[in-house]
Design brief:
single chain, alpha+beta, seven-stranded mixed β-sheet, 25% strand, binds cytidine-5'-diphosphate
């Protein structure tokens, strides 16, 4: 490595059009549904209508007899092969197919394998299950009540519904800060359960070759290598015989990180039947049974001096994990990274207590465009700071500015132990305020109030921790988190780059080629990027939690620099000079003081196969497994302006300004796309997206009539700004950005609605802020019309 390069020039900071779009826009993507293999069978899943019930019996005889049905798989059959239960990515267990009980609505009971999909689905209706309903536990508070039924009575040592208790920070120092505080401000809120709902649901085609024993699983996987290892461990199949191929993916957002029963049963069925088995999940299956996100109850307090200085933070949080603790969670951080909750503020003492509970719901907690609970933490602190501003009677922007971690304090160690690599928060806030016209808006807000109109201005100045991770701290099921790049330059100077991460729409084929172009001067269009095939890419932990750029992006730089080092030796040989006499400029080495005596990277590549010196290995390639020294800490300041209708409780977004800092931007167009997507998702959570349950545990939100996704019609327009504070340890100074706006924006939307009502004493409206909830708040504050 030759140090950090942070200047935006050449191939960095250039909005190269996305290579991958050429095939997507002509309908030539290759998704799971496009994969058709000879003699392929189809699988459908029978799901439980009950949230909690004992299974007395399952009668599959009528289904088995339906012409075209090849097999019906139940938990009993899987149990014979020790496959009725599987480990989760948090080291808990989850049923593949239910045997003793069902513990959530939508739980997988049996699978039909048939000659076509229609027969498979028809046969589901012929399966008779005798259930004995049990009381359902549908909130973590109820789950922790000593009288609650024990949901995981299948686990020997589990005598209640507690999963974990986790603390971070310094309890004593925090108590002291609160004892000495002039003012203590409290916020109690809930970040509701929502679902990533990618456009493409989950699915696979499992193909076990009975002759060779080769297991090929085409699956919607955000982490194919980790999944291969888990498959090998669960099934006992030799890992070298398992190939996971993750083709084009229609959105992941964390939903395609866990391993779901459908993948396992399809693979087991293919193994037993000797034919490929395809499983395509339907929308309801996806919404009710795959990884949910959030569902955190948060109760916290901020200690302040009279002049507004923040002195302490304590937060208690309780999470509803569903019936299995299943989210990918590094073992060192049981509750994820919730303790980033001190956010962008220089708070000297903090203490966080987090607890998780089992409930009769689908396993939850996937990092929906988020790094393991960062979203909830960021939401909480940005809501709490806003509350503190009202209680102190100061401007929310100024309270933030007063307490920002000063630019000269980076690297900064937070009270909960994170070392923030870099930051410079004021310029981002200034820019957001300037762009939104903050001063004028505050005057307009006052004027409007006199006229009986309610305008709200919401801010959020978030900090994130992304890029898992330093392997000393981060793992999945013990597999350390790093990522990889393998770069080979062909004789004609074209290159192939293979990565351990896996794009689900983020544009990796373009941006990672730009990194190679930046490092070697090979044009990005001459670099093919391959991902998602475990036989043909180096081992890596996959793509989620904005980790690809900080890890595989860095690995790409390092691999390219290794290639450049060898290219230099070759150039010295070709130019008959010493290496020390050579200088590099993008695309070529030349002799110092004689720029005409040069060799381009393409000429050098050709020589690597045709004219390399005696004793040197042929070829021009390198591999890097990159273990980042730290996470990266992107940040931003968002401002949202709303007007609330006093008659209906409806709120309209008037303006959204988002200023993001993700260090060096490789491809600004892609970064902006990521941010706009995140701002839309943030709006969705603030306005409409909610999965909820009735008293019996029936999931409300199991289809797109009930689970509302914003369309282009409702989605506001966005104005974007940028500051650039490069990561000091990333080879090109880049930080992750994939999740930033999903993490940062929900608080800005809520703060805006609350701000419109705050003068009348309103301090909170829980998400999603449906018009009935806002109207109730208006009514209580005496503002309703
Ligand atoms: O892991 P994931 O790809 O979801 O997230 P990311 O690495 O934060 O980046 C999302 C996309 O934005 C990637 O395709 C990156 O190449 C691009 N990006 C960029 O161009 N510059 C950055 N500093 C960060 C990301």
């Amino acid at each position: 490595m030759t140090g950090v390069e942070t200047e935006h020039k050449g191939w960095l900071g250039r909005s190269v059009k996305r290579k991958e779009d050429a095939r997507f826009i002509v309908g030539r993507g290759n998704y799971i549904e496009d994969i058709v293999l000879p003699r392929m069978l189809h699988m459908a899943i029978l799901r439980s209508p009950y949230a909690h019930a004992k299974i007395n019996s399952i009668d599959t005889s009528a289904a088995t007899e339906l012409p075209g049905v090849v097999a019906v798989v139940t938990g009993e059959l899987l149990a014979e092969h020790k496959l009725a239960w599987m480990p989760t990515l948090s080291g808990d267990t989850q049923a593949v197919l239910a045997t003793d009980k069902v513990r959530m609505q939508g739980q997988e009971i049996a699978c039909v394998i048939a000659e076509d999909r229609y027969i498979a689905h028809d046969a589901l209706e012929l399966i008779e299950v005798d259930y004995e309903p049990l009381p359902a536990v549908i909130s973590p508070q109820a789950a922790l009540d000593p009288t609650a039924p024990v949901i995981r009575d299948d686990k020997e040592d589990q005598t209640d519904n507690k999963i974990y208790h986790w603390e971070a920070g310094d309890a004593e120092a925090t108590e002291k800060a609160f004892a000495e505080a002039d003012k203590v401000v409290r916020l109690v809120t809930h970040y509701p359960r929502c679902h990533p709902a990618p456009l493409e649901c989950c699915g696979c085609v499992a193909d076990v070759n009975p002759a060779t024993g080769k297991v090929t699983i085409h699956m919607t996987s955000q982490a194919p290598h980790a999944h291969r290892t888990v498959f090998a461990l669960v099934t006992g199949l030799p890992e070298q015989d398992i190939q996971i191929i993750s083709p084009d993916i229609g959105g992941g957002f964390g939903n395609k990180v866990p391993i779901y029963p459908g993948y396992v049963v399809a693979t087991a069925a293919s193994l037993l039947l000797g034919r490929p088995v395809k499983w395509i999940e339907d929308r309801t299956g996806n919404l009710i049974s795959t990884g949910f996100a959030r569902d955190f109850y948060m109760d916290g307090e901020l200690a302040l001096k009279q002049d507004g200085t923040m002195t302490g933070l304590r937060v208690k949080m309780l999470s509803d994990q569903g019936y299995a603790y299943a989210d990918a969670q590094p073992s060192k951080f049981k509750a994820g990274l919730f303790h980033i909750v001190t956010g962008s503020y220089d708070i000297p003492a903090a203490h966080v207590v987090t607890e998780g509970a089992y409930t009769n719901k689908a396993p939850g907690g996937v990092a929906y465009r988020c790094s393991f609970r960062v979203t909830e933490a960021s939401f909480f602190i940005e809501r709490l700071v806003q509350t503190a501003a009202y209680e102190l009677g100061v401007d929310p922007a100024e309270l933030r500015r007063q307490n920002f971690i000063p630019a000269d304090k980076f690297p900064y160690t937070s009270a909960t132990g994170f070392e923030y690599d870099s930051g410079n928060y004021e310029p981002a806030l200034d820019q957001a305020l300037e762009r939104v016209g903050y001063k004028k808006l505050r005057e307009e807000q006052k004027r409007a109030r006199k006229e009986g109109r309610l305008i709200g201005i919401g801010l959020a100045s978030f900090t994130e921790v992304v890029g898992a991770g330093p392997s000393r701290q981060f793992d999945i099921l013990g597999i350390k988190m790093f990522d990889s790049a393998e770069l080979r330059v062909h004789p004609t100077g074209k290159a192939i780059l293979k990565l351990g991460v896996k794009s689900q729409g983020q544009g990796h084929e373009t941006t990672f080629a730009q990194i190679v172009a930046h490092e070697l001067g090979i044009p990005a269009e001459d670099v093919t990027v391959r991902e998602g095939d475990t036989d043909n890419t180096p081992y890596g932990l996959g793509t989620y939690a904005s980790r690809s750029t900080p890890t595989a992006g860095a690995a790409t730089s390092v691999a390219a620099r290794k290639v450049r080092d060898k290219a230099k030796k070759l150039a010295a040989h070709l130019l008959e000079t010493a290496e020390d006499d050579l200088e590099w400029e993008p695309g070529k080495f030349f002799v110092k003081g004689a720029p005409d005596r040069s060799k381009t990277i393409q000429e050098i590549a050709f020589a690597a196969y045709t004219d390399h010196p005696q004793g040197m290995e042929a070829g021009l390639e390198a591999v890097n497994y990159y273990d980042p020294p730290n996470m990266t800490y992107p940040f931003g300041s968002y401002a949202v302006v709303v007007e609330v209708d006093r008659g209906t409780g409806q709120w309209d977004v008037k303006k959204v300004v988002a200023v993001d800092d993700c260090g060096t931007r490789i491809n600004p167009m892609i970064v902006e796309g990521q941010i706009m997507g995140g701002l839309t998702e943030g709006y969705a959570m603030a306005a409409m997206q909610l999965i909820t349950f009735d008293e019996e545990g029936n999931c409300i939100g199991s289809n797109f009539m009930d689970y509302l996704l914003p369309t282009s019609w409702e989605t506001p327009s966005f104005e974007l700004g940028e500051t650039t504070t490069p990561s000091p340890h990333h080879p090109i100074g880049a930080k992750g950005v994939g999740e930033s706006a999903t993490v940062g924006s929900p608080a800005a939307y809520v703060n805006a609605v609350v701000d419109a009502l705050a003068h009348a004493g309103v301090r909170n409206v829980d998400m999603p802020m449906t018009s009935d909830k806002v109207w109730a708040a208006l009514n209580e504050a005496g503002l309703a019309e």
